[in-house]
Amino acid sequence: MTLNILLPKAHSEQRRWQQLALENEVTLTMVDPWLIETLPEQPQTKSIWLNLDQYQGVICVSPTAAKVLIDALDCYWPMPPVGVHWLCNGPRTASVLKAAGLNVRYPTEGNTAEDVLELPETKVTASDKWLIVKGEGGRVTYLETLKARGANAIELEVYRRSMNSSVMADMPALASQCQALWLSSEYLGSQLLQNNSDFWLAWVGQWWLSSDRLQIWATKQGITNTIVGLGATPEALGQMIKQHSTNL
Description:
The chain has two domains: 4-33 and 164-247, Rossmann fold (3-Layer(aba) Sandwich), CATH 3.40.50; 37-161, 3-Layer(aba) Sandwich (Rossmann fold), CATH 3.40.50. Helix 3 packs parallel to helix 4 (91-99). The protein is α/β, with parallel strands linked by helices. The strands form two sheets. It has a six-stranded mixed sheet with strand order 3-8-7-4-5-6. It is 43% helix and 22% strand. Helix 1 links the parallel strand 1 and strand 2. The longest helix is centred in the last third of the chain and has 17 residues, at 186-202. The mean pLDDT is 94. It is elongated and about 55 Å long.
């Protein structure tokens, strides 16, 4: 039986994951549960964009955040400000920044906030200014850690995430045909349980998780049929397929 993995990813990202199916002889059931709304620019937001050269570092938490940042640079900066550390958590977000000519850094292993905060650029000195470009809500690890290290760090929320209710309603039926679910977002996992906890807590498939942090979350929810990978990239999922597909 061919391994079938339920893979929730935005439409814009799905193509780069499709190669996994060809390389590993698996089936990827891909769905896009996300609704992304860019927030209107407020006067405070514009002021931050105009003063980007005052920041020692800017962290983009997602491709959407990176796209908004690039649009702001195109609007307000003929040339990107120099002397700024441009950081992100992984290659997909980095590709957006690199396409705009920014010299971006991200961890070579791991794609979590904790991994980013291990980069030497984040060893801040007192009064350094840092900007975290992100969506509404989500983790505050960057903000809290940089502040604890002495930086003057702020968050700039530039988009809003919500769930596509029809896709969320379809996911239990799709999962019933799959042996594993790839999960790289605690928010999505929480929404799945909120929408249909009876199904997801009784589901016999495996939860393939992208980080130890998600493993901690899953344990708290009572989810025990889990396997933890080494990141949220296609390469990390490919490694999990090679290691664990024969156990399903």
